[in-house]
Amino acid sequence: MSSEAPYIPATARQFNVGKVRTIEAMTIVEVPVPKPRATEVLVKVKAVSLQYRDMMIIMGRYPLPYAATTVPCSDGVGQIVALGEDVRGWSVGDRVMPNFFLDLMSENVKDDAIMNSAMGAVMPGMLQEYRSLVKIPDHLTYAEASTLPCAGLTAFAPLLDGPHRLSAGETILIQGTGGVATFALQMAVVAGAVPIVISSSDDKLEHAKAMGARHTINYSKNPDWDVAVKKLTDGKGCDRVLELTGNLTLQRSINAVKLGGLIDIIGLLGGRMSTTQVPDVDIIVPAIFKQIIFRGVYVGSVEQFARFARFLSAHPDATRPKIDKAFKFEEAPAAFAHMWGKTHVGKIVVRIGEDEDEE
User: Fold this and answer.
1) Which of 121, 148, 204, 249 could form a disulfide with 152 if both were Cys (CB 3.0 to 4.6 A apart)?
2) Which residues form the Enoyl reductase (ER) domain (predicted)?
């Protein structure tokens, strides 16, 4: 690694969502490159991965307020290029990834005030509180690492680091083959669980089988997939459901899970992005009479992220992030269009800068 201080330009480019909430309205603007304050580092972003949350922001369907100057990406990783005077434990040149929640150091902290995150990171450069950073595992590229802060940790935190950890032999129903789903599938395989994957595409299900799915169900051909899950589990239902859609599929998840089972509620995509009528779902009755545990999942803490990184290093081959396609910075709108097409398996990545192929 060179000992010379890296060149830091005065300005950098970023994509903003614009006032019209469409992919086509995304625009590149020049912004000043900020200087780090005492406890901040300046990170040159090398890659970002796309989230459905980002798509909801672009399309004007995100439930929290945001400005037209918002950058529609929250998962950026890169290399430290400058340090504030009070930063400890990090050096210029370190490969880092910020936690999604910048101030959430431990999952045991329950103060809503610290549950904050950057709505969007400046794509070519961003400031981060140094205590929110985690070192990128040595075996991963920047593109692969960019998939970890949101999608990867969202799967790891409940399945392998939460109060209800997935055990060998347990059956888990995983909805779809997107970022969180593919990470969850990998973790289920490592844990020795029995993953059941549902999707509307036979091609995607073939990818899931190759990754270790024990059973697959095409819900476009078998809309009563909850009944199919019960058949696969001798009428008992699965031990756990990773609910990634929300109310659009929640009732079937309730039907598919066993007495005393667990439903990890992660997604609300079906409610915010669907054009169909989304039903109201009563969770009180099944929580009482079927004794189902409903647990909301909202990414994880810095400590959990560090444990996740160590887990990946311990299982490098089994947990290598699955990237569907990588785009150049200027192609970011095309990357979002690809996500909107819903043909991808795994994560969609945008590489940043003139050295975008450098890993």
Assistant:
1) 148
2) 21-350
